[in-house]
Design brief:
181 residues; mainly alpha; Tetracycline Repressor, domain 2; 10 helices; 69% helix
């Protein structure tokens, strides 16, 4: 009777995802993953042709995590992009390693920043429709301008250069929305 596999693809992906969250995707190496998973590197390369294939799955798992994070966001502000901006900045603050992998890396496995952000729930499209309903003539242009501000604030939060609280951030987001509307 063959020995039962104890190290599965799902287990390796979850372990690699946890490692990426804690130390950054650049530190997800075969040796570090094996140590964290409590195995040798052999099961990794039995299940994956190479580390690139595994890292691709970690990337997609991170996209799912981000979508779930956004899905949980509060929807308490009338102005479009305010709640989405808050959750994006908070994600950068709470999960800096995942944020860097998803939004600051050029290795996105053929997915654009917009596709990652929009997710399967079409959250950006929803916000753009909300802006149109509020009288915005060009919601795409509004999104671009808002997103430059939001992404900049999120990046600043990672480096420690953004120290505004939620109340001040909401005010800035609302002011920015009104200025560009």
């Amino acid at each position: 009777m063959p020995r039962k596999e104890t190290i599965t693809r799902d287990y390796l992906i979850e372990t690699a995802f946890t490692l990426a969250k804690q130390e950054g995707v650049e530190n997800v190496t075969a040796r570090k993953l094996a140590a964290k998973a409590g195995c040798s590197t052999q099961p990794i390369f039995r299940l994956y042709d190479n580390m690139e294939d595994l890292l691709k799955e970690v990337f997609y798992r991170s996209c799912e995590f981000f979508s779930y994070y956004v899905e949980k966001m509060s929807k308490s502000h009338e102005e479009p992009f305010v709640d989405l901006g808050l959750v994006y900045i908070k994600f950068a603050t709470d999960e800096p390693h995942l944020f860097k992998m998803l939004f600051l890396s050029d290795k996105r496995f053929d997915r654009s920043m917009y596709e990652i952000l929009n997710g399967d729930k079409a959250v950006v499209a929803e916000q753009m429709n909300k802006a149109k309903a509020a009288g915005c003539a060009n919601s795409g242009d509004l999104f671009t301008k808002m997103w430059i501000f939001i992404h900049g604030a999120a990046c600043m939060s990672i480096t420690g250069d953004y120290d505004l609280g939620e109340e001040d951030t909401v005010k800035l987001l609302i002011d920015t929305y009104k200025a560009y509307k």
